[in-house]
Each structure stands twice: as C-alpha cells, then as structure tokens.
Amino acid sequence: MIRRRRAALAGACGLAVAASAAPAEARIERFAVLIGNNAGEKGEVELRYAEDDASKMYDVLKDLGGFPPANLVLLRSEGVETVRRTLITMNDRVRAAISSPDTDVLYLVYYSGHADANALHLGPTPLSLTEFEQLVRGSAASARLLIVDSCRSGALTRVKGGSSAPPFVIKLDQRLAGQGMVTLTSSSGNEDAQESDELKGSFFTHALVSGLLGTADADRDGAVSLEEAYRHAYESTLRATSRTWAGAQHPTFRYDLRGQGKLVLTELPVHASLRGMLRFPAGRAYLVMRDSSEGAVVAEVGASDATRTVSLRPGRYFVRGRGPDFLLEGSVEAGAGETMDVGDERLSRVMFARLVRKGGGVREVAHGPVAGYQLRTPLVPGDSLCHGGFVGYGIELQHLGVAPRLSACRSAFQNEHLEASDDELGLDVRLSRSWDLPVISLGVGVDVGLAVMRQRFETAGRAPDRHGLAGTFGVDTGVNIDLAEGFYLGVEAAAQTYVFKQQRAGSDEGEVGAAVAMRLRVGVGMSL
Q: Measured over all CA atoms, what is the biggest interatomic distance in the chain, rounded to whole angstroms?
C-alpha cells in the first residue's frame, strides 16, 4: 500500500496536461463548478462547513488560480436537478471553448457534502456516483480535475455525514477522452472524512486551500502545482486527523494524464500587487482568521511547512500561533503589494485559561498550582486579624472553574485576664465563572469547606485548650492579572460565613452559632 502510494506521488511529479504539451502560444481557459451542501438524506446529521468549504475553493481559484468569474459557478445547498443542469451547461461551454484554435481547457469540479458508496446526498435526493463521474469525465476539456470531500457523521471534531458505510471510490477507466483526468478524494478505504470546529471546515479542504495560498509551494517558484497541492493536503490532513477521536484520514490521488510537465493551479507572483503577503517564522504552527478570532479560518501554516508565506486578500486578520506551552495571538493588517513578517513581537502571549474559556477546541482544560497570602477578619469581638497563607490547585473548564485550597492562619486575643492564640486550618473548594478582558480576568464564585479551630490560652488560672470544627460557606469576587511565562497574579475577596459551636468562658457547654468574616487572598499561580 505504501509502495503504491509512493508510486502515485512519483507519477504525479510528471503530470501531463494539454496545457503543458501544447505549443507555447496556446491559450489556456479555465472553468470550475464548486458544489457544497450541508444537508443530507433523512436521518443524516446536517454538516456545518461543507458549503463554506466550497466558497473557500471558489475564492482561491478566482483570486489566484486564473479562473475568470464568468467561468466559475458556486452552488450552495442546491439539489440534484440544479447540479445536473449546471454540469451539463458547463460541458457545453467547455466544448465551445475547446473548439477555438490554439485553446486548451482545464475543467475543475469540487464537491463537499454527504455521500455513501453509491451516491452523493444532495439533500433528500441522491445523485448517483456513476452519473456524477460521467458528467465530469465526458467533458471535452483537455484536463479534468475532480475533487471530492465526502462526508460521514460525528461530534466535537465531527466525522462528516450520516451512517457508517464504506466511503465511495470513483473508478476511472484506463482510457479517457481528451488529455486526461485527475481525481482527489479526502479519504480512502473505510475511513471517514472529518471536519473541525476550530478550523471551521473540513481538514482536507482546509489543508488544500492553505496549500493553494502558498504553503504548498515546495520548490518556491511562486506557482503551486497539482502535485504540490496534493502532497501538502495529504500530509497536513494525515497529521491533523491523527490526533482526533475518529483517527487518521488518508486522502487519495488517481490520475490518467498524458504529456510532460506539471499542472499549475495557482500562481502567486502574478497577483502579488493585488494581494497581501504574511510571512511567519519557522518552528511554530499558525492559524489565520479573517477580521477577528471569531472569523473564518482562511489559512494555516504548519510547524513543519518549508514555505512560510501565504497570499491573502488585503485586509485585517487575526493570527494565532501555537507554542509548546502557550499561544500567541494578535491582529495584523495585510496590505496590497506588501509582505509583512509576523514575528512574536507583533503578537500577545495568551494564558491557557483564556484559551479554554474561549472554547473552539483550542484547549479543553487548563490547570495549575497557586499559593499566596491570606487575611481574615475576626470571628468574635476582641480577636485580631487572622494572618496566614494558602495553597491550591485550579482547574479551568470553558464555563466553570474548580479550585480546592488548603489554608492556615493565626490570630490573637488579649484582655486584662488572659491572652489567647487562635489557629485555623481550613479546606475549601471554590466554583467560579470568569470573564476575560485585556490583560485581566474578572470572576465571581462560591466556596464551601471545613475548618479546624484551635484556641490556646496563656493565663495564671486554669484554661485548657479548645478545639472545634466549623463549616464554611462564602461568596467572592476576584481578578487575575496575566504575568509572563504562564504565571498570573490573583486577588480574591470573599464574604465568609462560619458555623461552629461557641462556648462561654468557664463552661464546657455551648451552642451552635454563625459568624461572618471577610477574607482576602493574594497569590501567584501557574497555568499548565
């Protein structure tokens, strides 16, 4: 299997198309149909990003691929009849174009949506794979490129689509009309094609589009060939899905082309004056979102990608870089005809707890130790402030923080008859909710716990030590201030209620009562 895949990749390096074999003066005209449908048959989970993936392919082909808008058709959420009619109409246009003297035609068809072993599921009505293949294969184009991102069902990093069935394989005849045909599929064997909430798209199409924007340009000649795009999509998809619940996904590549040369899909220098270039340092992976952190993911540069520059439409972008134990985030402006180096100095280091609270699959949990100083007001009249310290461990989920803490403090009591020291050893658990602002995070919480109380007397008379147990309940507000290297400074103020047995002087009996105190904690924590 590995040997066959390597052979296919080696063969792809010598891809042949009419555009390559034709005389130098031949004109190359490009046509494409991009199809995306989130809906499937009854009972299939509706996809989130199939239609958006088709739009991303449309944009990159129009901006960098030399596909005139008049020759591009984008179908979102359309049924079988519209898809069939569009493919037939496009075949007629291709036939008219190829009949012109010294003209070669590249025809690309892309599909993202539900499918099974027999048909594409364009809503409730299927389109058989046999008919779909024939509509593409029957084109008179010099070279035909069919890209299929087929789908299954799933959850957080969802498996795209519905029932668990073997994915379809489009079988190609050994002899094709025209100069040839290439088919890319997003998965092989009995694998599922997966989509990602973080990427807001499928792994395969995301990797393919990122490659066409420049990261697949392995030889750095300014042009991304079909072989380069496939190799980048294959390696990126395999690497990303190897960490998902559904497991590794292996895109497939089938071709039957004649001639010598390579099929160029996008050319970066040709459009450089109209585009903005972002260049990233080596050794770290980056995601690029349009406008803000909530915007669509438009490109990714992998940690191992040799090419570190992507071509984007001019505008504002949000960049997220992944370090070994932190993220770097920030907004940058891509100017037309300009190249910007996106170094660490342009981005802000982000605490892991903030990443968790943002959601989106970047991290599901952050945790780490915290320790500091504690101060409590007196529980009974005449007592002094209770000074001490605390240690704890915080666990931060997207909507809730949980932190068990162990604390100790000592206060003193003095009157004309005796002196006493009061020691408290407490254990509490805090539940909190936090909101992130620039540099600081605000939070509110409640805590419950138990405290062991010990009172020791110094007097000329008889005054044995006293021991007691108190239940505690508190409400609090706090602020965390981000420091360097994953550390933060935390300040927390709470109103604390103690319920314990209170004894009168000279008596061993007492009654259960409540006392309210204010508590202040100041500590330094680390997010892991």
A: 118
